Amino acid sequence: MSSFESADRFLVVPRVWHDALIAATYRRRGYAEDESTAAGQNAAEAARHGIRTHNGIKALHIESKHRAGGGGAVPHAAVSRRPGRFSASEVWDANRKLGQIVAQEAIETCIRLAEVHGIGQVSVDNAFHYLWGGGYVMEAARRGYIAYTNCTAARAEVVPFGGRAPTLGTNPHSWAFPTCDVVGFPIVIDWATSVIAMGRIDHCRREGHLLPPGAAVDADGAPTVDPAKAAALLPFGAHKGYGLGLVNELMAAFIGGSLPTLRAGDSQPGEKHTSTFYFQVIHPDAIAGSFASGRTQRENVGAVLADILGHGNENARLPGQNEATAAARSDANGGLLFTAAEIAELNLLATENRSPALEPARLKPAL
Amino acid sequence: MSSFESADRFLVVPRVWHDALIAATYRRRGYAEDESTAAGQNAAEAARHGIRTHNGIKALHIESKHRAGGGGAVPHAAVSRRPGRFSASEVWDANRKLGQIVAQEAIETCIRLAEVHGIGQVSVDNAFHYLWGGGYVMEAARRGYIAYTNCTAARAEVVPFGGRAPTLGTNPHSWAFPTCDVVGFPIVIDWATSVIAMGRIDHCRREGHLLPPGAAVDADGAPTVDPAKAAALLPFGAHKGYGLGLVNELMAAFIGGSLPTLRAGDSQPGEKHTSTFYFQVIHPDAIAGSFASGRTQRENVGAVLADILGHGNENARLPGQNEATAAARSDANGGLLFTAAEIAELNLLATENRSPALEPARLKPAL
Fold first, then answer.
1. How far does the CA of residue A348 sit from the closest CA of chain B (Å)?
2. Which of residues 5-64 of B touch A (CB under 8 A)?
3. Domains along the sequence of chain A with CATH
């Protein structure tokens, strides 16, 4: 996840303009009001938290790219909730409904189940990209819950440890913990299981940079740092990251995902090309034992985190801290931060929507 | 986890002798019959699966080391199960009961909860080392369930990403999937969140080997490959492995674990020095959607795995495959495989128990 911590210069985009633009674009593409709003919300929160790889521009690009390929999201699709005999679990068929609204509703359902059972899970078959997974679990954590999600990526780009061909998705995991009243923000552990994203290879190729070692292989499966030769990605942490990427594929396979190498492929009769989502929420009261020195649960979490970041570790950061810093910067600037190049892309959407574009010269530079 | 795939030469130890020896040693140290049997079982299965880092020798060594330090397991301790309002969750206080029997019972309880709710969790406060975490989830997977466990390690040996001082445990994660009828063994993803274990540093120091780069730091927090200078471990995969190690500390902090740097420390009034366990079981039927081409869920999992290991990836291995190969080798040899040095340690225990030792010269070399 690239954040604002780069040499890029940012301008302040009014959030009202941004949210209206993203929602209007989804509506123009045929999506329902609630679908468009959910997508706009996820995009705004991603931008606000400095998640530039999963902002509205990326979301709308993915939407149109997949629609053109025949495997896109289906506007106005209804989620089928399969009744089952398991009281803390729901299985949904998303019927390729837009991922952002499905993810929001799945997390709500997990919260409802966790309130009764201490833990709740929703698995989602026939899903369409939910963009920023960290956003859904972060929201649950902000409301006091431990939350987790994983999904399968749309394309098989990652080579299994010891193999040569990409047969795994970049398969992200996202965990969030309710630590707002402890450290001021939810701790969010949220990353893909490849060392880098495919977009980074394109970026390095354009900019003439080498790739980090151990991140990519060429068409023969041999390691390379040359972005021009890179054909596939490697999992982070050798067999350990491979195992983590496999967790998503296995969850997907039990849920209803089909062959990973087919996901981005042409439609075949009887086959499935969709991703799956898995959501889980844990109520912190449902795992609470006793705490030392008369501390409450939250005080105990605070003491443990202070211990981890003490002893000379003041330079270590908590996962989620970059996102919190980015959000504070956005809020202090009174809007969402985008580069001039990103604003040009947003303006293109505005023109397509026949709505007013922004004049970059009139926008405040971000502090 | 080192396995049999080394240059070491193995002899075949009769399982009956081994299991009787381990259980008798626990009984001699004051443990109850069922505690001793559970510990013997975990040790035998670890040895059988080639998990040499968590066999009976290691288990008994940890038991006596911690007992001497005052923070050991408590023979005959009773688990207090705290009744709660959450139907798919139980919170246990292990009162420092021997970890192996607690873990076995916790997984049984999770299975029972998952049969009703689709998912079940047990958190365990005041726990004592369960040794081979992979063994408990592997057993659940063999019986048809998806299972997960994590725990906090007894000592803070790992430096947070960006820090200098060890304030995190090696904090392992273990996932297992019911794939026996698909690939012949349960897929088990089971590793610590450090690049290497502390024992590897001792080993390299003894053998005059350098450490792998990025695995350890010296007393000032600077990276080193010199085992004589190594003072602490680094997480695997930079910030990603750090985040994974933090997941265990956070779960522990919500359950009741206290400061990680206190865990191995001297007893302080009002403080807690114990580890915590977290267990979770998912019923595969509770996440099942629909499957392409008329496949059953298991057939679908098989098709997905064949896809991942196809396309030129025949040399890639599935996590759990090494353990399955080791178990098959043990079974083919009709016993458990140990080196002469390991057998000398087992014989020492036998002598202490006043039970018959093995004569290495009379043991079959392992095929």
1. 36
2. none
3. 11-362 (3.30.1370.60)
